[in-house]
Amino acid sequence: MGIKYYKPTSAGRRGGSVSDFAECTEPRVNAPEKSLLKPLPKKGGRNHHGIVTSRFRGGGHKQRYRVIDFKRKQDGVEAVVLSVEYDPCRSARIALIQYSNDTKTKAYILSPDGLKAGDKVMSGETSEPKIGNCMPLSKVPLGMTIHNVELTPGKGGQICRSAGCSAVLGNRDKGQALITLPSGEVRRVSDKCRATIGSVSNPDHMNISLGKAGRKRWMGRKPHNRGTSQNPVDHPMGGGEGRTAGGRDPCSPRGVLAKGGKTRKKRKASNKAIVRRRPAGAHQTHNG
Asked: Which GO BP terms, alphabetically (predicted)?
């Protein structure tokens, strides 16, 4: 896998780059499994009342959602990887697997880095700790790289699901497991929670440059207007003659401060599961 750079035939091509899709089984064929597709209607950032709840959303290329199996509940049944495919709804690649039982069920899973067509994967307590296998944290060797980790047993993987992400299993004690997340946070979860061995595929996703504003519109993202460029009736930082510095601390259109404030609820039930907080950002480490 890697990144492809085009010749600078235009201003957008000059700064843009794309994935070469080398890890996909058939990179030039977009033929997903029809039985695992669902329609994905556009909402434009609006709720059921038609009110904009997420700004700067709308448009974008038409997509169909691939149903991903985050739970991996068919224990002890070996499955063969039929293909590794591109998914327009997520940054990671997905793998189409078919179970070897009588039903010959097909399912999509998150493709780990290094998984390819023809490989075999399995889930359950009896599976081996190799790439693509899913098992409870109580059976995973310490120090192993994992992804698609559950927070509640049986609910399905919730964290470490985007491209290139992985967590590390640190320790186990009294039915609890300590995992180190990509942010540096150390979290305690039940050792009955399941995780998949390996890291998520497509680690070069973070190095791709869009190159032009149009590619962002294809993704359903509209231009993001600065608060200082708006009118006072639309934003607290708007108004003034000419360009201004804002006149106050950066905030949202509703007046919520944008920098330095904590966004996590103080009484959130899962706070007790966090053993070590993630390190502060660079803007919070300096004095003053």
From this structure: cytoplasmic translation
